[in-house]
Amino acid sequence: MDKLLSELVGKLKSAFGERLVSTILYGSATVGDWTERKSDLNVLCVLDRITPAELGKSEPVFRWWREQGQPPPLLLTAEEVSGSADCFAMEFHDMQEHRRVLQGRDVILGLTVEDRFYRAQVEHELRSKQIRLRQKAAELLPDRKRLVRLLTDSISTFCVLGRHALVLSGREPRWKKHEILAALENALGRPFQSFAAILAIRQSGEVPAGGDAIAMLEGYLREADALVDFVNGLASRKL
Length: 239
What we know:
Helix content: 55-70%
Strand content: 5-15%
Radius of gyration: 19 Å
Low-confidence stretches: none
Number of domains: 2
CATH topology of the largest domain: Four Helix Bundle (Hemerythrin (Met), subunit A)
Order of helices and strands: HEEHEHHEHHHHH
Distance between the termini: 37 Å
Shape: globular
Number of strands: 4
């Protein structure tokens, strides 16, 4: 991981020179929950300006980064970072808690994230992922293997959103996925058995013999619904 990140920073420096303000790692890699070939390396890349010239220089670097199996860096100007905490409340909240400055100055230090924007984004992301899960599952119901793959591919995102739900409710943040599920069970007063079963498959790569993908989906959808309702209910509270 460190070698890959060092190579990325080197390519960014070569591409942008003095226009590169900061490169920051955030997400699972900063909290000890990163797994090679399964977890993403989330990177914020900050420039002093973004014009077609900078976009042209970024293309080969970002294309190389995608070829390493990583998501495109979040590309912003320093001015946009200071003015977009309402739009990227989840991302910046995560960075405030855990980040690693790979290069340049710490643009997150002193940034303010308002709870009302934070909660709204968490609910929006949850509902969007919930709808997308239903749409994709409808297509894959006849194909058990692809359906299970959909569930295991999506569980990480729901765990991340579950962590944000816990923080919004005033509970201690959890970062490891199994700890998030345990905390959600305590907060919502209900089991998250399907979440846990899908997470176990994702981590082991093995589907239990006799496992019923449809039943797993049914439980997964119920638990996702409960999580959405939990975050929606926080709107009536003063955050």
